[in-house]
């Protein structure tokens, strides 16, 4: 950001002046710190312009989104020069979603009022319970330390040497803990015992889109400002930046300890130990440094010796024309005996389901944790490939709408994947059963649709890798206890470079009915291939019918043909599952419209998943007119499976999978 830098004293005068001027007209701007793009590098927008409309839509979407419950919001809206990016972050101890969204809404109102027509702005409330920023440039995963503001408690501490050292040790420890957080939360708060039996409270947080290294760098630079221009010798202080914030106080605890993640065991910051005596502090530090250096040298020598004796475990993944050599962390490896005990030696009583590549069992680890174990078939020619592919990809993914991989096992001929256990069965178990789908009202179905969309968006744009799933279908969407969706089965997934848009293959894998036409007929796949599969899923969820066809007497009409015909003829209510026909009809029809946009034959016409998420979250956003879907036929007498075989046979270079229906049977994991 190109902002003017202010000395803190001058900045404070400006804030106080603005607060006084606005006190009568906008009380919610009190205790609100903000920066506009004062150098005007990012430019201005005019009222009612496309950029202004995109900004209003985006801020409305962000501050009303109830689907995210861990306090970090990242959205964009628009195209090219009119695209707007926004990030919202609530403090880690703000666990009440209503409070979080209310804070972000207040920030949104303040920024658009205090920074009128500026394309870039950022604001924080005094207690740092939330931060909101928007810009006309991408700010996701971008570590920025400016603009920043500093504040301090005016009171001076006693016994300064011990106090300052205790503060520094506390914040250094919190920095390490916050930096090691996952993509949902990078936050830590704790206390330490200071001189004169004082309790010093500390809190640090980064935006969770940062890498561990960037988060650490941002916080370290903040802590280093304490003795320079923040709060030297003061009993409290804070440094607040776009990508991170740090605060410590002695007079009161400013965060909610009940919402703080439990700290890991540590011997470096024992808060119950008395503070060191001033005379011993320096000597103790020198001894600790010497011991640490000796210990590190010994560990290095041991590692070199062990590595020389025994090479690390490696195996190679080869799919089509690619060779990816990966080293699997032994920390994820389970012993076969442990999994045998957990599943009662793969007892039939613990069997959850069976698919093309193996069997899934339920198990319980010695610590009581329930797991799902995928045991690959020993005679499956594709088993090793899918196993290695799944470990490579899924171990690096962390998202609430993806099934979490806990580990793996390779012993003898056994190839096992260990997942978190998802209590309810897969989506198809409910949606295609006339009795069970009554359990899914429209609110539940909409939550499932939105959750799947967020999971795919994470795979396509928000994870460290760009991943094309290639086998999105109802049986690969698992439902947890609260019927939240989790995308599973990454055996078919492919890794893309960040700027890669398309790839070709001679080996077609996936499930008929969910595969995009350019993939089936030409072997071309991209993010738009997954968008097509998602569109089919939406239409299945709304109609309650499988994509393979709707049986009417002696004829079998393909689902997309049925839906398009009714949509075109002005009778879309014929599409809707009768069990939800009276629930939020307008919202249901909007989702049908989105589904049809996703299954258009021309891949370029389909929206991206970022656009789909925005469409689902903003009902005021206009939708374009969908064109005819892929595989549309105007007769109900042609069987879809026959149609697919005829079309694929016209392209001899494409080797269609022999499994005509499904890779995995519809059972839970």
Automatic annotation (TrEMBL):
Regions crossing the membrane: 286-306
Pfam families, alphabetized: PK_Tyr_Ser-Thr, Stress-antifung
Region (Disordered), start-end ranges: 255-281
UniProt entry keywords in alphabetical sequence: ATP-binding, Glycoprotein, Kinase, Membrane, Nucleotide-binding, Phosphoprotein, Receptor, Repeat, Serine/threonine-protein kinase, Signal, Transferase, Transmembrane, Transmembrane helix
Major site of localization recorded for this protein: membrane
Origin superkingdom: Eukaryota
InterPro entries cross-referenced by the UniProt entry: GNK2, GNK2_sf, Kinase-like_dom_sf, Prot_kinase_dom, Ser-Thr/Tyr_kinase_cat_dom, Ser/Thr_kinase_AS
Residue ranges occupied by any Protein kinase domain in the UniProt entry: 346-622
Topology of this chain in the membrane: Single-pass membrane protein
Residues in Gnk2-homologous domain copies: 33-139, 145-253
GO biological process: response to stress
Signal peptide region: 1-25
Gene Ontology, cellular component aspect: plasma membrane
Keyword Acetylation: no
PANTHER family: CYSTEINE-RICH RECEPTOR-LIKE PROTEIN KINASE 27-RELATED, RECEPTOR-LIKE SERINE/THREONINE-PROTEIN KINASE SD1-8
The protein's name: Uncharacterized protein
Origin species: Pisum sativum
């Amino acid at each position: 950001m190109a902002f003017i830098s202010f000395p803190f004293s001058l900045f404070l005068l400006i804030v106080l002046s603005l607060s006084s001027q606005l006190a009568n007209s906008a009380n919610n701007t009190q205790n609100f710190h903000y920066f506009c793009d004062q150098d005007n590098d990012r430019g201005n927008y005019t009222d009612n312009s496309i950029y202004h409309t995109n900004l209003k839509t985006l801020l409305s979407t962000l501050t009303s989104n109830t689907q995210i419950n861990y306090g970090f919001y990242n959205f964009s809206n628009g195209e090219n020069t009119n695209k707007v990016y926004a990030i919202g972050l609530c403090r880690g101890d703000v666990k009440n979603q209503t409070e979080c969204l209310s804070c972000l809404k207040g920030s949104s109102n303040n920024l658009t009022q205090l920074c009128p027509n500026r394309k870039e702005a950022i604001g924080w409330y005094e207690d740092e319970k939330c931060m909101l920023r928007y810009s006309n440039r991408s700010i996701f995963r971008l570590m920025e330390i400016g603009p920043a503001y500093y504040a301090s408690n005016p009171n001076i501490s006693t016994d300064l040497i011990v106090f300052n050292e205790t503060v520094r040790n506390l914040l250094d420890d919190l920095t390490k803990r916050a930096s090691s957080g996952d993509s949902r939360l990078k936050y830590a708060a704790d206390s330490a015992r200071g001189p004169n039996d004082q309790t010093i409270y500390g809190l640090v947080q980064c935006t969770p889109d940062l890498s561990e290294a960037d988060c650490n760098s941002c916080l370290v630079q903040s802590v280093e400002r304490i003795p320079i221009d923040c709060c030297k010798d003061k009993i409290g202080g804070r440094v607040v930046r776009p990508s991170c914030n740090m605060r410590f106080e002695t007079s009161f605890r400013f965060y909610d300890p009940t919402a703080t993640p439990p700290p890991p065991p540590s011997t470096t910051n024992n808060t119950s130990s008395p503070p060191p005596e001033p005379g011993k502090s320096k000597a103790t530090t020198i001894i600790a440094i010497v011991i640490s250096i000796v210990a590190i040298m010994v560990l290095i020598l041991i590692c070199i010796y062990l590595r020389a004796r025994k090479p690390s475990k490696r195996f190679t993944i080869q799919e089509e024309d690619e060779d990816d050599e990966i080293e699997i962390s032994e920390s994820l490896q389970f012993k076969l005996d442990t999994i045998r005990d957990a599943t009662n030696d793969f007892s039939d009583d613990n069997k959850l389901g069976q698919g093309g590549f193996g069997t899934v069992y339920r198990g319980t680890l010695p610590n009581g944790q329930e797991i799902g174990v995928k045991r690959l078939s020993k005679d499956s020619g594709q088993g090793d490939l899918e196993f290695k592919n799944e470990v490579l990809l899924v171990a690096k993914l962390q998202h609430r709408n993806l099934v979490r991989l806990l580990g793996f096992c390779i012993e003898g001929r056994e190839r096992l994947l260990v997942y978190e256990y998802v209590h309810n069965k897969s989506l198809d178990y409910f949606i295609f059963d006339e009795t069970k789908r009554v359990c899914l009202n429209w609110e539940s179905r909409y939550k499932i649709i939105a959750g799947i969309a967020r999971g795919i968006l994470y795979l396509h744009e928000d994870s460290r890798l760009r991943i094309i799933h290639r086998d999105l279908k109802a049986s690969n969407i698992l439902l947890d206890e609260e019927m939240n969706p989790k995308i599973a089965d990454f055996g078919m997934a492919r890794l893309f470079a960040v700027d890669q848009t398309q790839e070709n293959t001679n080996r077609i894998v996936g499930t008929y009915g969910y595969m995009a036409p350019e993939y089936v007929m030409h072997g071309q796949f991209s993010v738009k291939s997954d968008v097509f599969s998602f569109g089919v899923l939406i239409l299945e969820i709304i109609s309650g019918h499988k994509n393979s066809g709707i049986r009417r007497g002696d004829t079998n009409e393909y689902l997309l043909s049925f839906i398009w015909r009714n949509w075109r003829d002005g009778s879309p209510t014929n599409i809707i599952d009768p069990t939800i026909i009276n629930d939020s009809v307008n919202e249901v029809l909007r989702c049908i419209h989105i589904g049809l946009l996703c299954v258009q034959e021309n891949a370029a016409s389909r929206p991206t998943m970022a656009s789909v998420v925005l469409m689902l979250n903003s009902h005021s956003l206009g939708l374009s007119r969908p064109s005819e879907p892929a595989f549309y036929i105007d007769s109900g007498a042609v069987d879809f499976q026959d149609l697919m075989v005829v079309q694929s046979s016209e392209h001899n270079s494409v080797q269609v999978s022999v499994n005509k229906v499904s890779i995995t049977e519809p059972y839970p994991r």
